[in-house]
Every structure is written in structure tokens, then in C-alpha cells.
Amino acid sequence: MARYAVARFDSPKVMVFYNSNSNYSNSLSEEFINELGRLNVVLPEDPDVDLSTWSENPQDWPEMADRVISKARRNQANVFMLAISAGQLPKALEIVRLNQREFPLLGGDDVYSPDTLVQGQDNALGMVVAVASDAEGSRFSERSSQLWGTADVNWRTITAYDAVQALMRAIDGQEQPTREGVQEELSSPNFSAPGAIDIIRFREDGDYDGDAQLVEVQKDDEGRYYFRGIDNNK
What percent of the chain has pLDDT over 90? Predict the structure, then answer.
């Protein structure tokens, strides 16, 4: 996502929103800031960008969102990054609503939610979100919906499926499976397993070897909002 921001925006100055009570959100925001470069980040220590400091009363959120958007203008930010956790999505969507597409929007995978489409509507158009896989555009999503009779097949479904596939392949590679043996199989440079969308491989550090898929909020001719996969290099 940081590479996309640099390629997409001329001299990006990003205001990063996060949740300090979430290890996931902290990790995502720090990784984004470190890759982007701290000179390209606006007000990283400001308490208002930490959505966990906001009141839990939804009636207070418009005032908080308006205040932080005003700060973004004063500090010449030119893009927002919503590196939030799922529990803070309602607050983030208040920022989306009041922003009214003034600042371009980027989001982490917890923004990849039907709530973003339903509540964001036109205010969310053009938002780019990084997800593990483009569930909307995959054959896996179509087959799973037919099998299970549900339309709720998303990147989390795909990630869970891939995890099971990787574990099964690692176990199959041993005559008498052990926890240590599974770990050795997964860390082998020759390990691979068929995933929902792509081949599953891991890097030497143990992280998944694959790029995040970028999707953008768009609207079809019938006025329905949806996430559409876009070229990561643009």
C-alpha cells in the first residue's frame, strides 16, 4: 500500500488513523509509516488519529471527525490511510462520511467490509483497500457461494482456507506428524500448497510470500457499490 501511495500521489503527505489498543492495527500502521517514510506522514503522534481515544458515544464522532479533518487541512495532508482494526470501523466511516472525498482514502484489510459500502456509499468511491486476496473477483468465491449457499465469502474466508490447505500439506509430508515436523515442512524453501486463488508459499522469515491485492470502491450502473480489483502497480 505504501508503494501504491508513492506511485499514485505526488509527494504524499499521509494522515494515518489507527487503534493503539490493537496489535494488528499498530503493526499495520507502523509498517506503512516505515515503508512510506516518516517525512511523508502528518501528525503521527496526534491523539486524534488514534481512534481508540475517541468517545464511545457515536453522537460525539462527527465533532471528532471534523476536528481531525480540519487538522489535516492545516497540516497540508493530501491522503488518509485507515490502518484501523475492525472494532474501530464505525468511527473510521464517520471520517469517510464527513471527508466527502476531499482527501483520497486508503485502507487496511479491516476496511474491506460490506459496512464500508453500505455506509460509505458515494463518500467511499475511489477508496483503495489492501486485502489478502481479491475474493470478489475469484472463482473460489463463486464456487464457495454455490456450495455453502452464502454470499459472505471474503478475504478472511480465503485466508482460513489457505491456512488449512497449508497445514494439510505439511502434515501429509510426514509419516508421523509432529508439531516440530509441521513447522519444518512449512519453513522448507520447497514447500508449496494449492490455495484458494494462488499457490501458497512462505518466505524465509515465515511470512506469506505474496503481495496484497488492491481493490477500489466503485458503483455500477444500477447504483450498487462494490469492491473491484485494480492493478497494484498503478
Answer: 44
